[in-house]
Amino acid sequence: MDDDVVGSARLRTGRRLYESAVTNPADVPEATVSRLPQYLRALSALAEAGLRTVSSEALAEAAGVGSAKLRKDLSYLGSYGTRGVGYEVGELHQHIADRLGLTSSWRVVIVGIGNLGHALAGYGGFASRGFGVVGLFDVDPTVVGEVVSGMPVRPLDELEATVREGGATIGVLTVPAAVAQGVCDRLVAAGVTSVLNFAPTVIRVPEHVDVRKVDLASELQILAFHAQRKAHAPGAPGHVRVGEVV
Amino acid sequence: MDDDVVGSARLRTGRRLYESAVTNPADVPEATVSRLPQYLRALSALAEAGLRTVSSEALAEAAGVGSAKLRKDLSYLGSYGTRGVGYEVGELHQHIADRLGLTSSWRVVIVGIGNLGHALAGYGGFASRGFGVVGLFDVDPTVVGEVVSGMPVRPLDELEATVREGGATIGVLTVPAAVAQGVCDRLVAAGVTSVLNFAPTVIRVPEHVDVRKVDLASELQILAFHAQRKAHAPGAPGHVRVGEVV
DNA sequence: TAGATTGTTAATCGATTAACAATC
DNA sequence: TAGATTGTTAATCGATTAACAATC
Known about the structure:
The structure is a homodimer of 246-residue chains.
Chain A: H1 30-48, E1 53-54, H2 56-63, H3 67-77, E2 81-82, E3 86-88, H4 89-99, E4 106-111, H5 115-121, H6 125-128, E5 131-138, E6 147-148, E7 151-155, H7 159-166, E8 170-173, H8 177-190, E9 194-197, E10 210-213, H9 216-232
Parallel strand pairs in A: 4-5, 4-8, 5-7, 8-9, 9-10
Antiparallel strand pairs in A: 1-3, 2-3, 6-7
The structure holds a DNA duplex (24 and 24 nucleotides).
């Protein structure tokens, strides 16, 4: 699990000593990056089902996208398919996992061990995918000391020391909105460069830090928008166009 | 809270009897829809801070976007600003809330009361935003009957009856991937038309049903991709270009 | 070789952005 | 009126899609 920094240069298959034809990670479009985890999951499922090779058509179906999009996405990573045959399931899985950095071991801290923090700390998907939780933190003295999934909840004071000693680079924020920015600043100061923010607020970070936001309320509101759109659509039951004489 | 179907036609401000110039909800771009909750949140914060009016520049700053994008987004909803002045905070909040359908009361069921289901059931943001939880479900007999946030967990058998009687149209899936499709099918058959899927699997639904997916593992993997990109970037410590003679 | 399927091209579509005329 | 700020235009950018030449 502990590959070195130039991990992707390793020559597992004995092919491609020079990767000049392969796109740089920086050149992979963001929309493509966001779909790589889906492809990885689909490939895992296909491997478990015993398949050795898969066509772009079948893999796309399993991942819930169109086959043209899938082939375009994979083309950004390089050419790992065989015309007339398809993709070798295990090999493609390995390539994508490499590109996603899942062959490194990323160290994660979770700050805010409320309901959601508890749920995330107990999430089995961390370890199996190259993510190791190295610290759980909370301010609440009644929560501090509690053991969650085999790991004690520490006081917030110990945040910086643990991040530094544990070498954590990913921070998960499950704190109230009001304190999210402050906690984030401390994480960044201690060396975290990637933040997954569950707090319902905008947080600002220096340019070298990545933030992704997961927002339950927003997701529900977007669903509500479309539900309302359906209800108001012409032809929908009870729909009346504004200004229309009924 | 219980506005009727033509709620957005109500004439709160006495203006705009005919809305012909205003875009249909169907015409609001998806990217814009996904930002409306952020704007709503920013407006709430500004209102709490006592502001009456706000410029696109200041609102954009609070929402974490550019001002040009904000003005373009708002233009899809209609013209609620005043040139030379800005937007009236309360009025704009009301308009966006209307468009998102938050003045209706959406009924929600949550299926799968594990760690994450617990967290969501206890989430305070539901009620305050026009979402009412009308049912919690699990298959596990040791969980069924437990009272979570004042509501008893019911056996899965009662899913259809509760969805129908409660008039739920939104279903939240916090079940294992293996059973997600089956539970989703039952939700849809019972009348749910919007699904928020936390299960790490692709689920298929009829065309009239909306699905949004929240996926912790994917989010972490996307962060890992960018972290790896940073580590491999030219100039990064320890970076060696593939094929380069060191 | 014939059939199958990739990888790539080019057209289309949708989103972002800067600039500025309209107008309060 | 003069200053400020919106709403819209048009250019640019990025993502999607269908079609098909390349090739196994």
